[in-house]
Amino acid sequence: MKKTTRQFIAPTLLLLATVTPELAAQISATEYTARRTALAQGIPNGILVALGSPAPSEDFLWFYQNSPFKYLTGFDEPEAALVMVVRDGAIAGKPLIFVQPKDPSREVWEGTRLGVDGARSAFGFDARVNTTLPAVIDSLLGSGAGRTLHVVGDYRPDREIRSHDDQFVAAVARRNPGITVQSANAKLNTVRGVKSAVEQDLLRKSIAITVDAHREAMRLVEPGMNEFELQALIEYTFRRNGADRPSFVSIVGSGPNSTTLHYGADDRFIENGDVIVMDIGASYRGYAADVTRTVPANGTFTPAQREIYQAVRDAQAAAERAAAVNGPAGVLSEVARASLRTSLVKFGLIESADATYDCDAAASRQCTQLSLYYMHGLGHGIGLDVHDPGSATGSGNLVPGSAFTIEPGIYVRGNLLDIIPRTPRNQAMIGKIRRAVEKYRNIGVRIEDDYIVTPTAVEWVSRAPREIAEIEAIMRQPWTGPAPRDRSKVEWYRSTGRPAP
Ligand code: GLY
Ligand code: MN
């Protein structure tokens, strides 16, 4: 395929300058209050502490606030904590936020801190210096406010190597014998599972940016380039459109790498005849998209690649048809698996729809033959985390406000037949599937889309080219440099609640 390139141009500085910053989409103080109130409902009386992320070991390394703390506060500095007194399922008094003090000499290196006064006025919390956190918690636990400490954070008392948060909680428990410590993470996850209108809006923006990146990459790709060239264009497109960063490692896997589910090295020269799995997502104001497309390196799927691709797409379409507002989420996975099984039987990759094999050498366990090629779940919630809480495609119902992915795949790994335990049962199976495995060897296909459930529909949001003909058509377009900035889109990215352009 002939491709042409031209110099990057920057025609849009003027347009950017006209965007009013106060249009910026953001979560309101009222919404943060509602989140904290929802968390307090149903929690027994006590003291709730949510722990922010520690500072990185060097101030020039990345700092990312953990998502539970971000969800509850919107506060984006390290070493912070939130404390609330919970009484009768409500928050008693004002929440207290503990923050790093102002320190002009540190701020020279790390940037401006809000400090106690800044946090108080910007967030409407009662604020304290974070060094006083242990004493305040001890005092509250001893004051009759409640002898239960509810913890939101990286807290799991059952593990051997203790996290920063485990150690903090253990120290509180040592100083306050007789208290009960309970994780509030599960309760918070329930609250986070339903996305507000503003959250949905932010997700639509991160998804739109990710779709743009897919379109760019589809135009650029050709045999001979390295996976990292595609990664660079994808991540450039994210940032150029105002995304914070990739929401997870950008997976650009060509040829054999297409069969590694979370391949993140992105450093192989792409060959003619490869397929390339691009599993990517922008994070926009903290909200994560997650969209996967699989494309043929030279612009045209081979017959074998088409068969696998269409089988994956059919499975996804079956799941989409099964998705209904307030309907059960688990059905999506069942119908997708049934569809994949039918295709794999047709290809000769499995012996029959329900066929199993010995998944250990002792033949003590049976696994489905489907799992030789499809070894992950159908999807997950999306939100502040790329794998966000929510009923998604597991248990529960697709209630309005759910945001989730559907991402079936088939991966025919080059060494598949070498890694199956050599039991008599498996030898017989290998004899039957060997030809098909050779035919589809090193073809990995995943198609992943993002959906938001509204009161009236399960909306497919990530509308990047997806059908075989659409992908081949966009790949015929020459890549002539990044798409010119579109003013209406720029304004949409920066606005709250407007419909997509
Ligand atoms: N995008 C990576 C995953 O969903 O596992
Ligand atoms: Mn995913």
Can you tell me about this structure?
The protein is 37% helix and 17% strand. It has 16 helices and 19 strands. It has a six-stranded mixed β-sheet with strand order 4-3-2-1-5-6, with helices on both faces. Helix 9 (197-220) packs antiparallel against helix 10 (227-240), helix 9 (197-220) packs across helix 15 and helix 11 packs antiparallel against helix 12. The longest helix has 24 residues, at 197-220. It is globular. Mean pLDDT is 93; it is low at 1-24. The protein binds glycine (GLY) and manganese (II) ion (MN). Manganese (II) ion (MN) is lined by residues 290, 380, 405, 407, 448.
Main traits of this protein?
501 residues; alpha+beta; Creatine Amidinohydrolase, Chain A, domain 1; Creatine Amidinohydrolase; three-stranded antiparallel beta sheet; disordered N terminus; binds glycine; binds manganese (II) ion
Mean pLDDT: 93
Strand content: 15-25%
Low-confidence regions:
1-24
Q: Tell me, what is the CATH class of the largest domain? A: Alpha Beta
End-to-end Cα distance, whole Å, is: 32 Å
**CATH architecture title of the largest domain:** Alpha-Beta Complex
Radius of gyration: 25 Å
Count the DSSP helices.
16
**Largest sheet report:** 6 strands, mixed
Bound molecules: glycine, manganese (II) ion
Strand ordering within the main sheet:
4-3-2-1-5-6
Question: Given the C-alpha coordinates, what overall shape results?
Answer: globular
The structural class is alpha+beta
CATH topology of the largest domain: Creatine Amidinohydrolase
CATH homologous superfamily designation of the largest domain: Creatinase/methionine aminopeptidase superfamily
- How many separate domains make up the residues? 2
Number of strands: 19
The percentage helix is 25-40%
